[in-house]
Amino acid sequence: MKSTIRTLSRLRCSNRGGRSYRERVPVAISVTQSNGEKMSRIVLFGAGGRAGRQIWQQGRSRGHDVVAVLRNPATHPEIGGVSGDVTNVADVRRLTAGADVVINASARIDISPDQFFAASTRALIEGLQAGRLLVIGIGTTLEPTPGIRLMDIPDFPYEAKPFTVGHALELELLQQSPGELDWVVITPPPVVLAEHAETGGALLVSAGPELLVSSDPTFTYTDLAVATVDEIDNATHHRTQIAVIRR
Known about the structure:
The protein is of the alpha/beta class. It has a single domain (36-246), classed as NAD(P)-binding Rossmann-like Domain (Rossmann fold). Helices cover 26% and strands 27% of the residues. It contains five helices and ten strands, in the order E-E-E-H-E-E-H-E-H-E-H-E-E-H-E. Helix 3 links the parallel strand 6 (101-104) and strand 7. Helix 1 crosses helix 5. The longest helix has 15 residues, at 113-127. It starts with a strand and ends with a strand.
């Protein structure tokens, strides 16, 4: 059996702007997993989103300790997460201390995507305390032909442009990050079926920005979660964007 790190939470009192707050913060303790398999401590930003909820469930189902980080944990009481802002360097530093892997599956619709993704990526680069960072990307940054992204084609939908530009900036900042930062951008196909049940079957993963083609167009957030946790269980890719489809 191997000793691993598991995270519980405790109440912490703090004072901000003359007001007292009580919040739950993660506390790492040493535990041993009975089956002897390695259990990772995963800090998941954006745990309340469509991708985040599936990743949270998938990680826990494989025995990992997943710390769910949300801006407002009260909106998802079933998750039991902790409060944190991925754009805040101090929050990133505090919450990722002792983590094995950090996942960013967060997004915002109340501010411009380029502003949000730039701020979150810079905060993660500066404040990350874990050895590995996985980021959920967007399929419209992939290339149907070498050097030409979907977002670059003339008839690309205008309404899809802001989030795509934000994710493209996120990838650019990661590519420019210090060499010791071990990051991977996990990129699903351009269309992900949010409510579709897991369909089963194998996934095809390819390093690089190539837009993969599959005979099975069905790809769900559960599939994305499986691919993400697979990359945790078997760290195959480093400092690159990867594309994922169903075989």
